Amino acid sequence: KPPRAFATVKDIIPDTTETVYDIQVPGINAFDANGFYVHNCGEQPLLPYESCNLGSINLKLMAKNGKIDWEKLSRTVKIAVHFLDNVIDVNTYPIKKIEKTTKRTRKIGLGVMGFADMLIKLGIPYNSRSALQVADKIMSHIKVEAQKASMELAIERGSFPAFKDSRWYHEGFEYMRNATLTTIAPTGSLSIIAGVTSSIEPIFAVSFIREIIDRKLVDVNPLFEAEAKKRGFYDRELMEKIAREGSIKRIKDIPADIKRLFITAHEIDPIFHVKIQATFQKHVDNAVSKTVNLPPTAKPKDVEKIFKAAYKLGCKGITVYRYGSKKREVLKFPESIEYAGTCRDMTCPN
């Protein structure tokens, strides 16, 4: 092997301004794929002509009676790895080169969604040390179980063709079906279908508006609604008040422990967002997609602090979003009471 070179960074100083907006900059920030102009992928680094093959476990379903069902999680990981490996073989590829390259490494990316929902069901605030511990245990367990499943498949079907050129072989593994096993994707659409929080994100708001094409959909956290009814403080006026304010932090009718449990993305310190991402990244082969939510008043120095923290903590990528920086928000806080419980079909008027 050629010798590896190392360098020490003594200092980082401002140089010039460079735009980092995805897709709005030509060149490396966007590209054409099958006639469509597409975004870069933040969670799946790939070699030329490899393809993306991802799946996500619904963590909300892995918590029951205040505990994590580890056996159920293990079974789910095994099935998911088997399923994603099958996808590689049954998939129809647009060109032969993509098929050949994909099958040479057989990369898959198993991740999670509904992490915030799981924490709520466990009674753990998102911005707590306990949440970091759960993140560490969950992803470590998924990593180990995914490796077991891939090795079992390799014994049955053979290791991926490039196995002897991989780190698995050089680290002493005898078999491995897939070059990579884990990825945490944004799960924007998947989580809507599953009815859970996106990826490893905290809840965006207890009540918010999701804009999809020309429609506005109200999204009220079902766990909050269930807890409010269970503890007897649910009523329509309260839901309307939450919709107007976008947060439950300053509403006196809501118990303090509920306020701590249902903390939202914009109420969490940006560096804690990074800590959550870094904790998951320790056990992920590929990368982790995670957004650090910033207020409209955020400055470049705030972004610099986040980027440096992400680098120091071992994140492979980082995304920041300053609320209000786009004319049309995909997720936004309600603007009037019509968005809280008064739209029966969940479709709100313009």
Question: What does this molecule look like?
Answer:
This protein is α+β, with helices and mostly antiparallel strands and 350 residues long. It has a single domain (50-350), classed as Anaerobic Ribonucleotide-triphosphate Reductase Large Chain, CATH 3.20.70. The chain has 11 helices and 12 strands. It has helices at residues 70-90, 96-105, 115-122, 129-157, 167-170, 188-194, 222-230, 236-245, 256-261, 270-281, 300-313; strands at 30-33, 36-39, 54-58, 63-64, 67-68, 109-113, 207-212, 215-220, 291-294, 319-322, 331-332, 347-348. The strands form 5 sheets. A 4-stranded antiparallel β-sheet has the order 11-7-8-12. It has a two-stranded antiparallel sheet with strand order 1-2. A hairpin with a 2-residue loop joins strand 1 (30-33) and strand 2. It is globular. It starts with 29 loop residues before the first strand and ends with a strand.
Order of helices and strands: EEEEEHHEHHHHEEHHHHEHEEE
Q: Report the end-to-end length measured between terminal Cα atoms.
A: 63 Å
C-alpha geometry = globular
Query: In which range does the helix fraction lie?
Result: 25-40%
Specify Rg, calculated over alpha carbons.
22 Å
Low-confidence stretches: 31-37, 335-350
What is the number of strand segments? 12
Share of residues in strands: 5-15%
CATH fold name: Anaerobic Ribonucleotide-triphosphate Reductase Large Chain
Largest sheet: 4 strands, antiparallel
Average pLDDT works out at 86
What structural class do you assign from the helix and strand content? alpha+beta
Assign the CATH class: Alpha Beta
CATH architecture: Alpha-Beta Barrel
